[in-house]
Amino acid sequence: xxxxxxxxxxxxxxGQVIEAPQAAALAQAxxxxxxxxxxxxxxxxxAAVYCLFPTLGQLxxxxxxxxxxxxxxxxxxxxxxxxxxxxxxxxxxxxxxxSVEEKRGLTFVGIDCEAIRQxxxxxxxxxRALMIIRGA
Amino acid sequence: xxxxxxxxxxxxxxxxxxERRVTQEQINAYAEAxxxxxxxxxxxxxxxxxxxxxxxxxxxxxxGILAEAVARWAGGYDRIASLTCRxxxxxxxxxxxxxxxxxxxxxxxxGIVHLDLEAVSDRGDRVLTNGRATVRLPQ
Lengths: 136, 139
Hints:
A: alpha+beta, 40% strand, B: 139 residues, 27% helix, elongated
């Protein structure tokens, strides 16, 4: 199980390509039959794809941290988008374990993530995920 | 979409609510597009085996719908500067999610509007709570 000794552990996922067709498919899945925005617009929550999953996926598979995936719940999520991303952008994503707390038999793990566009070094996303883990 | 100009917005104004019925087909499409293939979202038998009433929508799909509600009101995805929420209750396929919000503060100098947000299901579950967003609006 994660403990305070894991705070600061980082996971890097460089070279994530913002694929316009995949962003459009995600927008379609969210908006159903009533898409409202211009073709090529990347929905903000696409940050899950280019920033969260490639980095958190590594954390979840890290046996040294040992997260019990069967007891894992995504509790809270924050995102900031200091600059918009566009189809074709390539970003370097990373995440870091920011906090580990035990309360009421549950483990709360705070994870900071960010994505930086390669072409202009602009931070296009910053996020904080709170994961709640039951059991050992 | 133009969105509402900053000068016409006041603290307490309600965001135009967004209602969206979420089907299993839509959840499957989100799993495919996002790459999040956790079986609790797509495999009924697996979901029941781990104690859920059935498959549930991805929390990030619910959050995506909340983001769309904000984007529609603000006039575009790129107007959203930040979004936060707590995943309080699962949304089940067939449920309708209603996203609401109201303006909590306005920073005219920065061109930023702060919103408090919530999303509830038609079965009465408060699915997304403690929602907050900041949006950039044209003067």
